Amino acid sequence: MRHTLRPLFHAVARIALPVGALLAVVPSANAVTATTTFQVTATVLKACLMTTPATLAFGNYDPAAATALSGTTTFSVTCTFGTPYSLGLNAGTSAGATITTRAMTSPTAAAGNNKLSYGLFKESTHSTNWDNSTSATGYTGTGLPQTQTVYGQIPTAQYTAAAATDYADTITLTLTY
């Protein structure tokens, strides 16, 4: 078996030796590299989004109660870092309502006795009315959700203004940035 492989080895050697000699004659090439740089850019635009507040449900109102009835709802605003924004609440949908004296109405109560007054405020002491301002309300985006609370209050002793039934109003919340 040794003798049968010998001619094969000779044939391979006759081919491999000239190819190897040819490779030894070719000069080796030195690699050359070139580098450069380029810019990567983007412009971050001002952007904000907000969640929809849940219903501000006051519950049962007793005009004879010694204190006003209070309730709250929350929402969050997320704006790009450093973006100033404003939040405004309109007067609602009741005819004659203003941002300082909002009114819920009842479709089942008699006209003239179908409004229940209430207020919306920026803090729990109910001293700063939440108006419909679209500028300069002092909010600045942090890039993270910022929770806002709307504090509502129904004044006491509304005996003649509102008959005993259900009342509702719809408020529009405006985010300006």
Automatic annotation (TrEMBL):
Listed A to Z, the keywords are: Capsid protein, Signal, Virion
- Please give the start and end residues of each transmembrane region: none
Where the record annotates domain Spore coat protein U/FanG, the positions are: 34-174
Q: What span is annotated as the signal peptide, if there is one?
A: 1-31
- SMART domains on file: SCPU (SM00972)
Known InterPro entries for this protein?
A: Spore_coat_component, Spore_coat_U/FanG
What single Pfam family name could you report for this chain, choosing any that match? SCPU
Please give the superkingdom of this protein's source.
Bacteria
Kindly provide the name given to this protein in its UniProt entry.
Answer: Spore coat protein U-like protein
Organism encoding this protein: Variovorax boronicumulans
